[in-house]
């Protein structure tokens, strides 16, 4: 069998462990307005038994002026403790279609100090299609305390991105679709220029998964190679607002790549400013250099 990421679990694996103590299940679904899906309403109507809902718009730094940026340690602790989650739990995160927004919360928990964090392959849509149990019952939450140890070493700031774009010292992998990356399609948020950061490579989030599952190790290597990303060198991931960039981060870390950052502000920050360089057109063809 093809080797899979150590950070994903199957529906079978999760269903067999639903009643185990120390397991926390997180619904991290989030959608763009054009997708016409209400994640909270879908959670209320049907979720995996025992799951709690993680609101990516609510659990964020609202002072940044950007969508769902990394919250403070204190805010994260308060929100996640109220969900009954502790840093020592085995945490399984899922979203609707699979490998879309769950990796962002996987990444958040990891930078906040949790180390047993996984993403459900196939998401809730597959879980339901396979006839696995769902419920509309309110999840009973036991009192708990999540003690966060926030590590920002894996996060790229705006100033850091200025340096990276200026000197080309770190490869940039952009998860947006090819049309948005090239500038041929408008951004979904008003007031943003189209295009990409100079030197960036396009690694569309859809290229990393198949039917809601993260591709196997060999297939992931091929995706990065075809995009011109050299896995022996540093990489910073980006997207529209820092959510799907985490799918690239998950893929990189699944391959054992350790020298990677995630640009939290992503295109919501870079593309909305008038003082940042922007390129249009597709990424340059060719293998990683």
UniProtKB/TrEMBL annotation:
The keyword Membrane does not apply. Its EC number is 2.8.1.2. Residues 175-197, 269-289 are annotated as: Disordered. It is an enzyme of class 2 (transferase). One of its GO terms (cellular component) is cytoplasm. SUPFAM superfamilies: Rhodanese/Cell cycle control phosphatase (SSF52821). Residues 19-136, 166-279 form the Rhodanese domain. Keywords: Cytoplasm, Pyruvate, Repeat, Transferase. Gene3D superfamilies: Rhodanese-like domain (3.40.250.10). It is found in: Cytoplasm. InterPro entries: Rhodanese-like_dom, Rhodanese-like_dom_sf, Thiosulphate_STrfase_CS, TST/MPST-like. GO terms for molecular function: 3-mercaptopyruvate sulfurtransferase activity; thiosulfate-cyanide sulfurtransferase activity. It catalyses: 2-oxo-3-sulfanylpropanoate + [thioredoxin]-dithiol = [thioredoxin]-disulfide + hydrogen sulfide + pyruvate + H(+). PANTHER family: SULFURTRANSFERASE, THIOSULFATE SULFERTANSFERASE. This is 3-mercaptopyruvate sulfurtransferase. It comes from Phyllobacterium phragmitis. The lineage of its organism: Bacteria, Pseudomonadati, Pseudomonadota, Alphaproteobacteria, Hyphomicrobiales.
